[in-house]
Design brief:
By secondary structure, the chain is of the alpha/beta class. Helix content is 38%, strand content 19%.
């Protein structure tokens, strides 16, 4: 079987969030099946082109028609260092992709409309016809539309099936109606397929036209059929719900391994937690907190945005500071939250550490050192942080939504079934109550060690998700 992955980012080449991790890890795990041939298409951003460690080979160039104009497209190739059945292809156009960051420009709609069409146009110049094209998020959501509207008259394209994965429904690719004639240049027949509400909506067209639609957790697949989560697309998802399925993401267990992680002061595993205590005291020293292995350390590592639950933290921040804990926060985002944590650190230097930065090394040190990990998200398509935290023996405190609900069953302290502390309502005091329950549980060291060992041995790898994806591809 031949698979094509199309995405706007992918590790190790370019990463702004969890999508890049998926585009790295999912094909990597799939490639263990030698019967699969996998191609991964990414835009050739400036940071990739100028990075000397990436060896790219120029293949060819051609024009990609967008309405009344034809845009240059260069095609580059890179081989996977260890997997012979994975090939990376890069779509080059300096007008669209020679920029400081991948996203956030006025013409993002045009940039990724071009990328989506260029992926299909590239296949004409390659000896590779995929059985399935797997598109990810709004940036590649036009591929099913381009395929059916412009390429299905060619025999080699007629058997291609499409899968569209919603990683975050909040971002849908919305552009004005005149984009249809100015950029897409399609037959008016297709206008209503891509039009929704008062504008064109890339994601809507993919939900309608893709053969299968997936989300990154089972619960999120049902949540997005309701207005509270769907950001306006609930009617479309209800209508096409028969083709929607949820598959929980995995994590790269080799990358996040407390027994080998080079970022850690000491390595540890489920059978030997002494190293976790050593990491905790080292982190306390680094962050200027009182060195005390017995005080519960609560951590948050996240983009600082309201829907991540930081408005709940803000509402009860003074109450949190009265708890017998140390609170460590790492991330960047909205200024109001950066100011909040900086103020709390100034007012409570013995309890609060505010780290307003992006630092992957410090992140792994916090995962390994903390006792409790707080994720009070309003919505969470999947979430990787709670799984990484458990891999490092840090007990999650989460709201029961999306992937958090799927990966963190509520703990019953009597039977010791479950993985962490949860709360249902998006309510600050419910969150605070769960934090207090977790702190109380922390005092029972025997049960604490039992839970820590349990969560460290849970399987959060890509093995099971890959089986589900492979079954999905084969069904098509």
């Amino acid at each position: 079987m031949r698979l094509l992955f199309a995405a706007s980012e992918g590790a190790p080449f370019i990463k702004t969030g969890g999508l890049a991790d998926v585009i790295y890890a999912l094909p990597n795990e799939l490639a263990n099946n030698e019967d699969l041939e996998i191609s991964i298409f990414l835009p050739l951003y400036r940071k990739i082109k100028q990075n000397p460690k990436f060896e790219l080979e120029y293949l060819t160039n051609f024009g990609v028609p967008l309405s009344w104009r034809s845009q240059y497209c260069g095609l580059f190739e890179a081989k996977h260092p260890t997997k012979k059945n994975i090939t990376y292809y890069f779509i080059d156009n300096e007008y669209y992709f020679d920029r400081d960051t991948p996203y956030g420009y006025y013409d993002d709609g045009e940039r990724f409309a071009f990328f989506s069409k260029a992926v299909l146009e590239s296949l004409i110049h390659l000896d590779f016809t995929p059985d399935v094209i797997h598109c990810h998020d709004w940036q590649t959501a036009l591929i099913p539309l381009w395929l059916k509207a412009n390429y299905c008259h060619m025999e080699r394209f007629q058997r291609i099936k499409t899968v569209f994965t919603i990683h975050n429904i909040e971002y849908q690719g919305k552009v004005p109606d005149d984009f249809f004639s100015e950029v897409l240049g399609l037959n008016p027949y297709w206008f209503n397929v891509v039009h929704y509400d008062t504008c064109l909506n890339f994601m809507k067209s993919a939900i309608v036209l893709a053969d299968k639609v997936t989300t990154v957790s089972r619960t999120y697949a049902y949540e997005i059929r309701h207005a509270y989560f769907a950001h306006g697309l609930q009617n479309i998802l209800q209508e096409y719900g028969y083709k929607v399925t949820g598959i929980v993401n995995g994590i790269d267990e080799a990358l996040y391994d407390p027994q080998t992680d080079p970022a850690l002061t000491a390595h540890f595993g489920p059978g030997d937690l002494d190293g976790k205590h050593k990491n905790k005291t080292a982190l306390q020293e680094r962050l200027g907190l009182p060195v005390d292995v017995n005080i519960p350390m609560v951590a948050m590592i996240s983009r600082l945005a309201s829907h991540k639950g930081f408005d709940l933290v803000e509402y009860v921040a003074n109450d949190i500071m009265q708890l017998p804990i140390q609170f460590v926060v790492l991330g960047t985002g909205e200024e109001r939250y950066e100011n909040l944590f900086n103020r709390l650190a100034w007012e409570h230097p013995d309890k609060m550490s505010s780290n307003m930065m992006f630092d992957p090394v410090l992140a792994n040190q916090i995962y390994a050192s903390a006792d409790l990990f707080l994720m009070p998200s309003q919505s969470e398509p999947c979430g990787l942080s709670q799984m990484i935290a458990m891999r490092y023996g840090t007990i999650p405190i989460v709201r029961e939504t999306g992937g958090l609900f799927d990966t963190v069953p509520a703990l019953n302290p009597d039977t010791m079934e479950g993985r962490g502390f949860t709360f249902k309502s998006y309510n600050a005091h419910d969150m605070l109550g769960s934090m207090k329950n977790a702190i109380y549980f922390y005092e029972d060291k025997k049960k604490l060690h039992t839970l820590v060992k349990h969560i460290m041995t849970c399987d959060f790898s890509w093995k099971e998700p890959v089986k589900e994806y492979l079954s999905l591809y084969q069904s098509l």
